[in-house]
Amino acid sequence: MSITHNQIHHQRKLMPCVVYTLIPLALLHYYTSISPVSYIQTVHKRLQSTATSDSTSPVQGQVAKVKNQPLCDYSDGRWVQTKVEPLYNGTSCETIKWAQNCMVNGRPDTGYLYWQWQPKDNQCPAPVFDASVFLGIIKNKHIAFIGDSLARNQLESLICLLSTTSKPELVYQGGDDLKFRRWVFHEYNATVSVFWSPFLVKGIQLDESKGINHNTLYLDTPNEKWATELDMIDIVVFSNGHWFVQKAIYYGEGNQMLGCNFAQEINCTDYNIFDAFRKVLRTSLKEVTKRFYKSDKTVVVATFTLAHFEGEWKFGTCLKTEPNKEGDAEMPHLENEMRKLAIEEVARAVKDVKEMNGWLRIEALDVTKLTFLRPDGHPGPYMFPNPFANGIKEGVPNDCVHWCMPGPIDT
Ligand SMILES: *[C@@H]1O[C@H](CO)[C@@H](O)[C@H](O)[C@H]1NC(C)=O
Ligand SMILES: *[C@@H]1O[C@H](CO)[C@@H](O)[C@H](O)[C@H]1NC(C)=O
Ligand SMILES: *[C@@H]1O[C@H](CO)[C@@H](O)[C@H](O)[C@H]1NC(C)=O
Fold first, then answer.
1. Where does the Trichome birefringence-like C-terminal domain lie (predicted)?
2. pLDDT (tens digit, 9 = 90+) per residue, 6-20?
3. How far apart are CA 347 and CA 238, in angstroms?
């Protein structure tokens, strides 16, 4: 057994006794990758295996890995039925955006709540979420979700899950529509925050109400809203992509116009959204790597999540009440490409850090497939309270992009 360079660095800080507990772990084949997801697994299993003999104090994110063993791959798998109850509901958590509170908005079916992700790799089952273990991992740390409304959806899910164990204090909120917020779990000195930055880079959002019909993106300039706060953040989660399907004009180095993606309407060079998204990820990852390649920070890039409109965007519907099985549908090209290029940019950044002899951790949180299989997990018409009250039957707007809370997003 050996431990990678990356982990040796992290273990420097640990007590020797903790290192000993890693050995039986490794012997039991609990090898893991270094993603936050597998942290949970490692720590979870460690707590289980020591539950009867050891102290109960949560441990921090130490990780063991057996050389030449494959890493856990949670990205591929299927949804299987479970009887496990969600950890929270529509009224027990205060941090659910109303448009995603399907229970309170009257969604009648509940079957979508009882599915568990089962990775293909049966060496690596996905553990049931344990809030106190997760809080132990982010103890004395700050985890920030940076991105669009899906990042917010994911952040709120995490806050609801963690709140079942420890009550957080909302210590900051700014921007319209709660776009910037920060909570502290005082018992753990753990900070969780969200930053609105749908492009990750500098830009101007389209806004019909102001007569702005396209986005403007400066592909080489990180958005200062998060870039200026990086010093304070230990775990950065980038989560965006959906805004890239809208009309946009792109600028590159020196504010030179690169082109746009609606050239048929205005006179400009066609510039495709995949190149734009790739550049945005590269700029953002570069910003972190160049400043923090020799740091204990972790950077996570969440991959593209699936929307499930049948028919038109917004007035289309997503009426399914069960997950898709493999083969029920085919992964659409756009989503597939967006995922692939995120994975590639993560790999590239990992290589860059290695070449600089750094140890900054960079991981993809590959949720594209997992979300692809869950057409049943969106609010649909229940983005509004009681949409079918007063005999209304048709023409109700649907949200088939975001996710009900509780729901598959808690995975
Ligand atoms: C929601 O959870 C709370 C606290 O666990 C419980 O008291 C309440 O009955 C639940 N509500 C529903 C609708 O299940
Ligand atoms: C509390 O957490 C912050 C990170 O959010 C960290 O900088 C600080 O050192 C922690 N305090 C203690 C006493 O460990
Ligand atoms: C589009 O812009 C180019 C370069 O500025 C110019 O040469 C061309 O005439 C323009 N075409 C139209 C249809 O306006």
1. 127-411
2. 333 333 333 233 322
3. 15
